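2024-03-11 09:14:02 INFO worker-7 job=invfold-0412 stage=load source=structure_tokens
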């Protein structure tokens, strides 16, 4: 069985061992060949490598090949059509899957490609931008466009993958047929690796992990740290708004209390950094997952999280974590409570790793592979 994947994720071509890399490590075991069409990478991330005409391989292992677009992003749909037709003609793929999000170039290209190749495909919606709250005007526009376009986008797809129940309910509310939308979680937790993480000495009070963009709620967390006199925060991740938030920390005289680590080389390093704090905080305004909360829970971290994505389905407030509104005042109250109550932290640390039973990587990726194969059949 051969899979054609249309994705916007370029992290592996940038030599990052992130969530996509770990997913493909397991997914490749279920397919004879996986071809991934994605946007081009900038020269600053290419390490001087030139992607071969037949596709870049060897970055994941097994028969996984990347086909980055040689043109600018605006022309991505045309690359999907051109390269997709060549690949299917040469390798006879059985099924196609499409990661869709604004500005919808993946869905546009895949929809047109499907008219030429007649390969059944799934539309994957991992994150509804701007839900439940928009963090910027751009996200608000993305939310409106998603409401308008995903209904059209899903017409030719054989199935739509939602990664949690909240996303499914929203898509059905947008008039996408209920029998076409399937909840297939994408929060893959590596039990073996996560349970082997050694907890280093605690040097921070709070850990944050994620791409540094507007919807993550990092300014509210930094302001909360300012009000928690003496508290220390470690920020793991990078993104276009990092400089702005570093400036915010300096303006609040928090240079010695907020540490930005940037991207770390692999998941083991990330989890080790998270484990160097007493608690983990996720205060996003919208999310598809977030995977970071589940990974923090898996290693026994007490977590504070906003009720976005899969959080309402997995966190029992006060039992295996705490729910926050994400506002600065509420973050201050919840963080202060946990930092002052070691017994509550210990109780949560015992309960939270049970999340591994629900989101074990091998089991969920097999279910994902079986879902895609069922479309081919």
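2024-03-11 09:14:09 INFO worker-7 stage=emit residues=377
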């Amino acid at each position: 069985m051969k899979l054609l994947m249309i994705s916007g994720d370029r992290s592996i071509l940038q030599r990052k061992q992130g969530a996509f890399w770990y997913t493909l490590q397991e997914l490749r075991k279920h397919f004879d060949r996986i071809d991934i069409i994605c946007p081009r990478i900038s020269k600053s991330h290419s390490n001087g490598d030139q992607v071969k005409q037949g596709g870049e391989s060897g970055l994941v292992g097994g028969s996984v090949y990347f086909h980055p677009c040689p043109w600018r992003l605006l022309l991505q749909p045309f690359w999907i059509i051109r390269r997709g037709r060549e690949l299917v003609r040469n390798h006879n793929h059985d099924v196609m899957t499409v990661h869709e999000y604004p500005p919808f170039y993946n869905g546009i290209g895949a929809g047109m490609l499907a008219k030429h190749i007649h390969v059944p495909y799934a539309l994957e919606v991992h994150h509804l931008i701007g839900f439940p709250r928009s963090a910027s005007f751009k996200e608000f526009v993305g939310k409106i466009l998603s409401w308008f376009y995903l209904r059209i986008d899903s017409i030719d797809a054989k199935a739509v993958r939602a990664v949690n129940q909240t996303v499914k309910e929203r898509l059905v509310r947008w008039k996408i047929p209920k029998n076409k939308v399937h909840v297939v979680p994408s929060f893959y937790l590596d039990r073996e690796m996560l349970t082997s993480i050694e907890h280093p000495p605690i040097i921070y009070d709070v850990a944050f992990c994620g791409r540094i963009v507007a919807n993550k709620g990092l300014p509210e967390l930094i302001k909360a740290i300012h009000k928690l006199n003496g508290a220390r925060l470690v920020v793991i991740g990078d993104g276009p708004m990092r400089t702005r938030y570093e400036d915010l920390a300096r303006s609040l005289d928090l240079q010695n209390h907020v540490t930005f680590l940037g991207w770390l080389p692999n998941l083991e390093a990330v989890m080790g950094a998270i484990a160097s704090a007493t608690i983990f905080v996720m205060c996003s305004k919208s999310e598809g997952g977030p995977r970071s909360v589940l990974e923090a829970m898996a290693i026994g971290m007490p977590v504070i999280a906003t009720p976005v994505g899969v959080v309402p389905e997995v966190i029992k407030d006060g039992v295996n974590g705490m729910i926050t509104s994400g506002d600065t005042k509420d973050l201050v109250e919840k963080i202060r409570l946990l930092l002052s109550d070691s017994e509550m932290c210990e109780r949560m640390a015992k309960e939270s790793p049970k999340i591994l039973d629900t989101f074990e990587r091998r089991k969920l990726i097999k279910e994902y592979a079986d879902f895609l194969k069922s479309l081919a059949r």
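2024-03-11 09:14:09 INFO worker-7 stage=report msg="The first helix runs from residue 19 to 27."
2024-03-11 09:14:10 INFO worker-7 job finished
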